[in-house]
Amino acid sequence: MSPADVPDLAINTATTRKQWRLDQAIEGYARAGISAIGPWREEIQEMGVQKAARQIRDAGLIVTGLCRAGMLTARGDAEFKAALDDNRRAIEEAHEFNATHVVIVAGGLPPGSKDLKAARDRVAEGLSSLRADAEAAGIRLALEPLNPIYGADRSVIVTLDQALDICEAVDVGGTTGLGVIVDTYHVWWDPNLSPALSRAAPKALGFHVNDWLSPQTDPLNDRGMIGDGAIDLPEFTKQVRKAGITLTPEVEIFSDRWWSEQPEVVVQTCIDRWRIIMAEANRDPDA
Ligand code: ZN
Q1: Measured between alpha carbons, how far is 201 from 160 in angstroms, rounded to an integer?
Q2: What is the 252 CA–ligand 1 centroid distance (Å)?
Q3: What's the CA-to-centroid distance between 65 and ligand 1, angstroms?
Q4: What DSSP line would sit under 228-286, residue for residue?
Q5: DSSP helix/strand/coil, 131
Q6: What distance in angstroms lies between residue 208's CA and the mean position of ligand 1's atoms?
Q7: C-alpha distances in angstroms, 120 versus 76, 77, 128, 165, 182?
Q8: How far apart, in whole angstroms, are the C-alpha atoms of residue 145 and residue 184?
C-alpha cells in the first residue's frame, strides 16, 4: 500500500527508541507515510536542535510536541529551582525547535513524603512560575495526567479533570497556553472520561494512543500495541471526536516486546492497526 493511503497518524519516537536514532526515525516514519513525529529532548539535543528541526521539516513531518519536562514536586527549594530551570531550558528548546508545546509530567511524591496535597500544590506553583516564560516563548505547556499506577513515582496528577483544574487555577482568565495531553493508557479507566474529554477539548494539545495489557509484566515498559489490550480504542476515538478534539493521534508505546522488533514492522503495525480502529470508529459514527 502506498504512503498516500496511510491514515493521519503520528508516532512518538519512544515507540522505536531502542532501534532507531532520531535521524533514522524521521526517515523511517516519513518513508512509511506517517504525518507527524513526537521527539524527545535528549534526541534533539544529541542531534542538534536546528539540524533535527531541519530534517523533520525536509521529510515533510509535523512536530506534535516535545517530550518532556515537568517533575515539579520537589520539596526543597534548591531542587525545585533546579526543576524550574530545566523546564525553562525545555521551553527554549521547544521554541528553537518550532514545537508548539512541551509535554509536562507532574512528578511523583518526593522521597520520604506521603503528602499528596503538598506535591500537587507544588505542581501548580511550578506551572505558575513557568507560565510567563512559556508565554514569552510562544510555547504551550501540556500537562499529561498519568495512570494512577504512577502516582507515587511519576505523576501525582492522575485524571484529566485534575489536570484541567490545575490549568484553570494557574491560567487566570484562561488566556495563557496551558493545556493537557489525553493518553489512552492513562485515562481509559476513568468513569468520568466522556465529560472530561468535552471539558478538555479547548485545551487538548495531544492525543496519545496505546493499549493496556492485562496482565502486564512491567508498568513502564509493557504498554500494548494499539488493538492488543483492554482499551476500546474505536469507542475512545469516537468519544474524542464527539468532544470536538481533532488532533492527529500519536502512537506512543514503551514496550520491551516492540523494542525487540524490526522498527519498520513496528511502524507498519501501528499504521495497520490504526486503520482497523478507524474503520470500526467510522462504521457507526453517531452510535
Ligand atoms: Zn503519553
Answers
A1: 11
A2: 6
A3: 11
A4: SSS--HHHHHHHHHHTT--PPEEE---BHHHHTS-HHHHHHHHHHHHHHHHHHHHHSTT
A5: helix
A6: 5
A7: 15, 16, 13, 11, 19
A8: 11
CA of 144 to the centre of ligand 1 (A): 7
The grid coordinates of residue 118 equal 503538598
Is the backbone peptide bond immediately before 111 cis, with ω within 30 degrees of 0? Answer: no
pTM assigned to the model: 0.96
- Which tens digit of pLDDT belongs to each residue from 86-113? 999 999 999 999 899 999 999 999 999 9
Instruction: Copy the grid coordinates of residue 51.
Output: 539540524
pLDDT at 54: 96
CA–CA gap between residue 212 and residue 153 (Å, rounded): 19
Going from the Cα of 29 to the center of ligand 1, the distance in angstroms, rounded, reads 18
d(CA 123, CA 105): 10
Q: What is the mean pLDDT of residues 115-142?
A: 96
**Mind listing the pLDDT tens digit for each residue in 153-199?**
999 999 999 999 999 999 876 666 899 999 999 999 999 999 999 99
